[in-house]
UniProtKB/TrEMBL annotation:
<dbReference type="InterPro" id="IPR030379">
    <property type="entry name" value="G_SEPTIN_dom"/>
</dbReference>
<dbReference type="GO" id="GO:0005525">
    <property type="term" value="F:GTP binding"/>
</dbReference>
<dbReference type="GO" id="GO:0009507">
    <property type="term" value="C:chloroplast"/>
</dbReference>
<dbReference type="Pfam" id="PF00735">
    <property type="entry name" value="Septin"/>
</dbReference>
<protein>
    <recommendedName>
        <fullName>Septin-type G domain-containing protein</fullName>
    </recommendedName>
</protein>
<dbReference type="InterPro" id="IPR027417">
    <property type="entry name" value="P-loop_NTPase"/>
</dbReference>
<feature type="domain" description="Septin-type G">
    <location>
        <begin position="7"/>
        <end position="181"/>
    </location>
</feature>
Length: 181
């Protein structure tokens, strides 16, 4: 039997949405599962703090059924939009960040620095965007942003605070979001 080489799968999620929807709290919940030692980069944050800059947390390793293919999960927290008068500026920072990671990867490929047997150097690339939507209302800015970013990376709409909605309201809102995209 041939020795199997460790080939981790890199997954990088970017969390985006309006201020106050619980994006950072959701990140804490996701990362909490991996123990306090994995949350060292978050100790300076209080419950009421706001994310002011795009911030990538230290990656965590998730063991899978295949011991040779663990998942290395990185999460990028972004400032909530709506704090500034021009929300397009907030979104431009996010799309510029995504494009910069593509450029870094392209440069490494050109310099032959990154090539992880799987065929794609995915260490820098954002895998998907978790886009938090306020419950009960879908704004034009949400639709515009999701359409724009979906040209760069997959978008996963997340209805924030959906526990404030009935089951029927949640299903109807999900249909509305899907129809708009």
């Amino acid at each position: 039997m041939q020795d199997q080489k460790l080939r981790p799968e890199h997954v990088k999620l970017m969390v985006v949405g309006e201020s106050g929807l619980g994006k950072t709290t959701s990140i804490r919940c996701i990362l909490h599962r991996y123990g306090e030692s994995e949350l060292d980069g978050m100790q300076d944050m209080t419950e009421k703090s706001k994310t002011l800059e795009i911030r990538e947390y230290p990656p965590v390793t998730i063991q899978t059924d295949d011991p040779c293919r663990p998942i290395i999960l990185s999460i990028i927290d972004t400032p909530g939009y709506g704090e500034h008068t021009d929300m397009r500026l907030d979104f431009t920072k996010i799309t510029d960040h995504i494009k910069a990671q593509w450029e870094t990867t392209y440069t490494e490929i050109q310099q032959n620095l990154t090539w992880e047997g799987s065929g794609l150097p995915s260490r820098h690339l954002v895998s998907a965007c978790l886009y938090f939507i306020a419950p009960h209302r879908l704004k034009t800015i949400d639709i515009d942003f999701m359409r724009e970013v979906s040209r760069l990376i997959p978008i996963i709409p997340v209805i924030a605070k959906s526990d404030t909605m009935t089951r029927d309201e949640t299903l109807e809102f999900r249909r509305l979001v899907a129809a708009q995209l």
